[in-house]
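Chapter summary example.
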Amino acid sequence: MTVITVDGAPDVLLVEFELARLDLAAATAAQRRKDTPTARSEVADCRARIDKILDGWNAGLRIPL
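The structure predicted for these 65 residues follows.
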């Protein structure tokens, strides 16, 4: 688990968001190729990860990633 402090939060969250966005794009493309429960789960996991990152951004405080 990574703990982010206020000092480095914006930079780290932007990097985390970019990585999550790329993972979501890949998961969505995989789901378009073959729509399976596993593919849907991957997309849902990526979206949940992005939600957590955005919650951290909105909180602006220490958050575990």
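To summarize the output: The two ends are 6 Å apart (CA to CA).
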